[in-house]
Amino acid sequence: xxxxxxxxxxxxxxxxxxxxxxxxxxxxxxxxxxxxxxxxxxxxxxxxxxxxxxxxxxxxxxxxxxxxxxxxxxxxxxxxxxxxxxxxxxxxxxxxxxxxxxxxxxxxxxxxxxxxxxxxxxxxxxxxxxxxxxxxxxxxxxxxxxxxxxxxxxxxxxxxxxxxxxxxxxxxxxxxxxxxxxxxxxxxxxxxxxxxxxxxxxxxxxxxxxxxxxxxxxxxxxxxxxxxxxxxxxxxxxxxxxxxxxxxxxxxxxxxxxxxxxxxxxxxxxxxxxxxxxxxxxxxxxxxxxxxxxxxxxxxxxxxxxxxxxxxxxxxxxxxxxxxxxxxxxxxxxxxxxxxxxxxxxxxxxxxxxxxxxxxxxxxxxxxxxxxxxxxxxxxxxxxxxxxxxxxxxxxxxxxxxxxxxxxxxxxxxxxxxxxxxxxxxxxxxxxxxxxxxxxxxxxxxxxxxxxxxxxxxxxxxxxxxxxxxxxxxxxxxxxxxxxxxxxxxxxxxxxxxxxxxxxxxxxxxxxxxxxxxxxxxxxxxxxxxxxxxxxxxxxxxxxxxxxxxxxxxxxxxxxxxxxxxxxxxxxxxxxxxxxxxxxxxxxxxxxxxxxxxxxxxxxxxxxxxxxxxxxxxxxxxxxxxxxxxxxxxxxxxxxxxxxxxxxxxxxxxxxxxxxxxxxxxxxxxxxxxxxxxxxxxxxxxxxxxxxxxxxxxxxxxxxxxxxxxxxxxxxxxxxxxxxxxxxxxxx
Length: 732
Prior knowledge:
Shape: elongated
Number of strands: 22
Structural class: alpha+beta
Radius of gyration: 35 Å
Oligomer: single chain
Helix content: 25-40%
Distance between the termini: 72 Å
């Protein structure tokens, strides 16, 4: 933009420098610098605009070119006398940017703004004048790509300019489309700059603009930007890769032969398809060479099969896998599950007759347009439509992609330019995105634990449950105490994968908050910034919440009768429920498993002539039997109807939160049980274990008591003492 503007006297020999190679992708193969000014307008259209108009009419036959002509006349007159550092008239730059966008299929409003995109920044034209002559929509786009002045912002001008553009993009993605095309043309002509400035611009392009092009699905611009950056930042690898491609260009192309075979197969199957050989760009070739260490001619390109309908894509796939040997590991279905940047295709690979492996992309013509131009191919996504022109099965453009919403959300809370700039680069470095399906929590287990409503959320690859919590709940995620991933309990540190089902468990008490360890698990800037802000407001160690110490005494209104030294729970005098088939033996209920009617039980004689009664599932029973100890038959009094009082030990496993002990004891009291003793283990990875020895007035009430304890928010299981996880199906 303005960095390219200069005075006529400073042009020198720079004007004789050659430009960069032109974009070699469908619809962009002949893009270059626009024609210089012609002598006089013809039919109201300046000669310099004729090529742009022809390309634009190819995509939009009914386009109104009068607006483009007026925009060109204003841009040409306002930039008149300005030269680029290459020595060319400055108007060639907005013309080239407009031509790039026209080749991608941009609509008239975007082209109008692209012609004017430097007028407010580099000339005396004001935004009010643009708005008055071309409307608020064009004015907004021009303002969105206009840089902030260094005289006002100093070193913060660049990050704050990008912040301004991102905010504008949040309301209209066409702002970033113009910026990407602008950067592409500047990168093509970057050779006139000093090497250190070339490197600085290339690094910003690599770290910010290329990831943005990927996220907006504009693969055509992304591919050429990658090659241009590759040439500047890695000149030796660039030269090696280019020489390798040139060397293979002199040999027979194995993909051409396979493409002809594919055409024959599809024609015999009655499938109307266009089969092309699509060359890889240089960075892609370089990546393949690094991954495979050795290249073949088939690695320099891929087959591209274009069809009319979605169903034809799968028909082509079937024929390829039937008539050729498929490489199963290479199959990916991005039609059923599109990428986050609108990309849709079937990917596969087949083995040719000579053993070479050919990768193939199968898509409809509309999918191909979107794959090349992303949001630009969708025209004006904000224009009202009745949906009549939308092909069935095609994906509509989201005006606010998930990644952009996340980025805009955290940038609002990051006023510091340096922090914003660093966080922006980190966020954009996450080059893949996953989709996680977030469901409401089980109200029976954790009432009110999850946010309202379920749905899909987008996250960068490698994100954890912590990131998902902040993406879904914002600052309210401070109260997250756990999660279920695909139905299984998981720690908040668990890394999520594409397609996972997630259930976030939230504490009902707003006093809960994140621990410093969460920062180790957070990958998104939004989560990290929110956690850091919360921790900054909590100086020192947080005080222990009521009832959350290493151990808690039973409430004052509960009897404090504990187990004896052997750990066996003594029945209340006169209430022994079990009878052993061993004359004269005293009976004691084992404290390790605290059996109650109608549990299946067995006994073992111990010293002193006492029979200890265990539940049949107790691990101690297996150990006793393994040592050769003979069991003693035991039965319950009263035919096991559970009509007697008893004691039982229960373990509640839960996510740590304030007031958990109070809520559990309240649930126990509501069932008429008395707490004999209670112990709380120190929390570990946000989990805590409470162990209670309880006196029940009636053993038949045990299932109801355990259900009541499981319904306490944050509790994910309640087990009998001595119970193993494998016995979960047998619990009351």
